[in-house]
Structure formats: C-alpha cells, structure tokens
Write a structure and sequence with these properties.
By secondary structure, the chain is of the alpha+beta class. The chain is 35% helix and 26% strand.
C-alpha cells in the first residue's frame, strides 16, 4: 500500500542520520565498540561492513557471528545473513557481534566431522 511505502521511506530517511553501534565480542573476552557512520548504517552492505570491522580490529581472519533469539550462534557470511541479523535486531540500540577465528566451529551448536 501507499501508506506502508511512505512509512518505510520516512523510516529510512529518519535512519539516514543515525549511526549504528556494534559491540564486537572477541574470543579472548574483550569487547570493542565500533560505530558505523550514518551513510553506511541507513543501507548496510555486508561487503562494506566486513572489511570495515576487520580493518578496525586489524584482523582479517575472522567470522562475524550473532546470537539468535534461541541463544544459538549464527555466522554472518553474506548480505542475506546480515539482513536477517538486522531484522532480528531492529529494537537494539547496540548490535552485538561475536568474532571467531575462521575454521573454529566450537561456538556453534553443531558437530562437524573431522576432515
């Protein structure tokens, strides 16, 4: 409907000036806060967010993860994963990310057969 479309555009316009704050939980227990500038926050793209966070942390061998509503760790590997994360976290003032080393599956509720 036109009203839903107008409401969506109004919300996007309001969010265009809003930065997003991420709390990046590192495997060593440290938490680093990271602000995403408004121009990226309004229409966040995985291919921009990932290198931005990796550069901030100076570590390019990491996987971005978040905890879903059930408390399970979910990997963010592409735009679809990021969109789902942002949809689930719409009311959060600070987005919680958990960074793990590439190839470390110990944080997931699954069993990975050895190679």
């Amino acid at each position: 409907s036109k009203s839903a479309s107008a409401a969506g555009k109004a919300a996007n316009a309001a969010n265009a000036d809003t930065e997003r704050m991420f709390a990046c939980h590192l495997q060593n227990g440290d938490v680093r806060n990271f602000k995403v500038p408004p121009k990226f926050a309004a229409n966040m793209k995985y291919q921009e967010l990932y290198p931005m966070l990796c550069g901030f942390l100076q570590d390019f061998d990491v996987v971005l993860n978040y905890k879903d509503g059930d408390g399970d760790m979910v990997a963010l590997r592409d735009q679809a994963d990021l969109d789902l994360f942002l949809l689930e976290a719409t009311s959060a003032t600070k987005l919680e990310l958990h960074l793990t080393s590439e190839g470390d599956y110990s944080v997931y509720n699954t069993h990975v057969a050895p190679a």
